[in-house]
Amino acid sequence: MTTALLVIDVQNDYFPGGALPLWNADATLDAIVAAIGRARSRGEHVMLVQHIAAAADSPLFQAGTDGVALHARIISAAPDAPVVVKRHTDSFHQTDLSRELDRLGTTDLRLAGMMTQNCVVFTALSPAAARYRVSVLSDCTTTTDGMIHGFALHALTTRVAVQPDA
Fold first, then answer.
1. Strand 83-86 relative to strand 45-51, pairing
2. E strands within the chain?
3. Per-domain boundaries in the chain
4. Could you count the other beta carbons within 10 Å of the beta carbon of residue 24?
5. How many CB atoms lie within 10 A of CB 68?
6. Are 143 and 10 in contact (CB under 8 A)?
7. What's the CA gap between 152 and 35, in Å, rounded?
8. What share of the chain in percent tops pLDDT 70?
């Protein structure tokens, strides 16, 4: 078994001063950085996903802005991690993610990132994710508020494992 930790959209626009600061963003960032450290100590692969949006699609993640950048603490925690650029909510859709995971021999995929009900859910439930044992790290995701976060995690439990990172 080969496990990969996929860190989705931990970008500056989701933090104070960004276009859409999220609920619990700093605590979630702390949890993700710790999860990256644990994953690396276990020999797991770490991959980063960065959303770059077309101007017509979203006010977030515009190319050339500070908001589109991956958070500096994520880059520091995983400086050599490959970065998959996406333009849609599903991290697999029209990206090289499947090819990168196959190259690594990935069988288990652990998800962390932002936003729980959007990019995390769509990646976890992607048809392309069906060939992996997918789990979502409940303490390593967040969204606009705690209630939506809780609803999204609960809804995922019928399809994938949802658990805190350990």
1. parallel
2. 3-8, 45-51, 83-86, 108-114, 133-142, 161-163
3. 3-163
4. 16
5. 19
6. no
7. 21
8. 100
Helix (H/G/I), strand (E/B), else coil: 84 = strand
Closest CA to 67 of 117, 22, 6, 118: 22
d(CA 142, CA 27): 9
Residue 29: Cβ-neighbour burial (10 angstroms; 0-12, 13-18, 19+)? buried
Nearest-angstrom CA–CA distance, 152 and 134? 15
For residue 52, how far is the Cα from the chain centroid? 14
Query: How large is the average pLDDT for residues 101-117?
Result: 97
Spatial distance between the Cα atoms of 102 and 118, rounded to a whole number of angstroms: 24
pLDDT digits (tens, 9 = 90+) for 110-122: 999 999 999 999 9
CATH superfamily entry for domain 3-163: Isochorismatase-like (3.40.50.850)
User: Which residues on neighbouring strands pair with residue 53, listed in sequence order?
Assistant: 62
- Shortest CA distance to 166 belongs to which of 49, 81, 41, 76? 41
Q: Where are the alpha helices (DSSP H) in the chain?
A: 25-41, 72-77, 97-104, 121-124, 146-156
Kindly report whether the peptide bond that precedes residue 115 is cis, defined as omega within 30 degrees of 0. yes
Instruction: State the CB neighbour count (10 A cutoff) for residue 38.
Output: 12
* Whether the model pTM is above 0.85: yes
